Structures are given as C-alpha cells and as structure tokens.
Recover the amino acids of this structure.
C-alpha cells in the first residue's frame, strides 16, 4: 500500500503541463471527491495498526505534493496566458500608426483661405445644384446671351431651370442678396462643366472666387490685393493684368504671375515666356450689383476667380489633372506628411 502511495507521490511531483485544462484534470484525479486521496483515506481503516502511522504520513505527503503542484503550475500558466480584452490583446506591442494626409486640393484650398482671411475675407458657401437666376441671369447673362456658350452646362433634364453650377459666382450672388455692404468674402467649391476629360481639363473641378464690395473701391485695390495673394502663395510679387472679357465684370482682366525661366520645367510651364496665367478678375458690373439689390451709384467692388486644381498641379508639379480625382492610393500617399 505504502509503495503505491510513493509511486503516486513521484508521479504527482514529476507532473507538468502547459494547459490549464490538463492541470484541472490532474487536480480532480488526485484531490477530487473520487480522486486518489479520498480513496486512500477510505482504505485507512483496513491498514494494520503497525503501518497506520507510516501510511498516514505517506497520504499527507501525497496531498501536500499534489496541492503544491497545482498551486505552482496554476500561477505559472496564468502569468503566461495572453490577456485579451474587448479591444484586442493588450499585451501585444502597438502597431505603427500610419500618418494620414490631406488631399492636394484641400491643401491648396486651405492655403488660399488662410491668405485671404488675413486681410479680412470670410468664407461663404452655397449649393452645387443651382437655378438659372443665380448661376447666369443675375450675373449679367440673360437667356440666349452668347456668353453662356463659354460655359458648357449640365442641365437637369426634368427642369431646364435647374443645373449644376458652372462657377462659384452663384454663391456670391446669394451672399449679396442676403448681406449688406461692406462685403468681403471668398467662395471655394466644386463646379461642373460639360467638357472633354484630358490631362489638362475635367468635367468637374474646384474654384475659389473672391468678392469685395464697398464705397470707393477701385481697380488699384484689386491689383494690390492680387499682388499680396501671389506673393503669399507663390513667393512671387511680379504680376501683370491683360485685358479680357467676363460678363459680370467691367473692366475685366486675366492675371499672370512672372514664374521665371530658371529650369527646364519653367520653360515648359510658361511656354518659354516666363509668365503663367493664374486667374481672371475685374470690377463688378453695375448690373450685377443692381440684380442683387445693391445700389451701384453708392457702391462698387471687384471680383476674382481661380481654379484650385490648376494651382495644385502647379505647386505640386502634377502633370495630369485626372490624378486628383482617381483615388489612386499610390498617388495620394505622396501627401501623407502634408497637413
């Protein structure tokens, strides 16, 4: 009998496992209600009197060995067990966080907004689905006006008076209708024109248009504002204004900035002239002021507009405007460090 107990002691002492389930089976086998120890205690009454002392000591040794083995292994296994939670394994090293970045259109738009905000311009926004009045008629483009052909338009088929805006000048009309001068606002947003898609043009693009209405506003104020803008955005202050035509401004001009001819890229961008066209501008036509409920005899103003996409291509040296809307991750990852 004692020899059998000694064998059980040796087995219990040498037992090892990496599983809590196996450890629980070991505990039940030795210490459970139907385990070895209870069976040995039940046999105690049949042990001869001269062997009871040795038998009892052997049983106690087996019990303490089994209890110690269970306690030791349980502590080790629980310490090594991976702790998990509702959000995953908290003991694992953290994964590196990928740095995000803004889209190049957003980068340029935010730069432009920041520059004009320093000289008192606020930001105004309006709907992309417009009516004929705000997009054309109020801007001195009545029905059948030939200048409407300059902007190939997406009309809503069920209602010929509703269209996708062709410029953010419609936002300026809405702003003038609801705000009294002095007015100083810029209107960034997406616009749509029915044009062929190529590396240099798209059927939708982004604009920022500016408007300043107050008493005694002159063309000199316009030039000074644009010179400040080009200096802040491009780092170049030399500009020129060429006579042009826009139905909602008179006089009107195209604005060129002197980019220079320092590199081969400069020659390609400026076609060897050093000058780069960046926007259109002009003094607000009195008819536009009148259509918006502003007295043209008391107030005057200037307006300007530029394509954000074209400026993004220029600043980031992108050679295809389609890249800005194709969501190619390989392209967008280049702007991860930009904010």
């Amino acid at each position: 009998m004692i020899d059998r107990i000694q064998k059980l002691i040796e087995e219990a002492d040498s037992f090892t496992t990496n599983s809590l389930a196996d450890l629980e089976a070991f505990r039940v086998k030795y210490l459970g209600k139907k385990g070895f120890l209870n069976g040995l205690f039940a046999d105690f009454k049949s042990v001869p009197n001269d062997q009871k002392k040795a038998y009892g000591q052997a049983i106690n040794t087996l019990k303490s060995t089994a209890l110690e083995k269970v306690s030791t292994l349980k502590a080790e296994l629980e310490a090594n067990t991976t702790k998990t939670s509702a959000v995953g394994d908290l003991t694992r090293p953290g994964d590196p966080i990928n740095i995000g970045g803004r889209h190049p259109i957003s980068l340029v738009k935010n730069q432009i907004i920041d520059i004009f905000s320093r000289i008192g311009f606020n930001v105004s926004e309006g709907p992309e689905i417009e009516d004929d009045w705000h997009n054309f008629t109020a801007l001195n483009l009545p029905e059948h006006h030939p200048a409407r052909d300059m902007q190939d338009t997406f009309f809503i088929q069920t209602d010929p008076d509703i269209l996708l805006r062709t410029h953010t000048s419609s936002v300026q009309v809405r702003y003038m209708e609801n705000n009294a001068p002095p007015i100083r606002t810029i209107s960034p947003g997406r616009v749509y024109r029915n044009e062929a898609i190529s590396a240099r043009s798209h059927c939708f693009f982004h604009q920022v248009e500016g408007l300043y209405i107050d008493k005694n506003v002159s063309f000199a104020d316009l030039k000074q504002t644009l010179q400040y803008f080009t200096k802040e955005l491009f780092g170049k202050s030399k500009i020129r204004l060429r006579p042009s035509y826009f139905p909602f401004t008179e006089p009107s001009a195209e604005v060129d900035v002197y980019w220079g001819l320092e590199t081969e890229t400069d020659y390609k961008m400026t076609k060897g002239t050093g000058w780069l066209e960046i926007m259109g501008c002009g003094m607000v036509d009195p008819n536009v002021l009148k259509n918006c409920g502003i007295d043209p005899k008391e107030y005057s103003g200037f307006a300007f507009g530029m394509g954000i996409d074209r400026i993004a291509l220029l600043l980031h040296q992108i050679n295809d405007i389609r890249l800005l809307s194709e969501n190619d991750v390989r392209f967008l990852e280049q702007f991860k460090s930009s904010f």
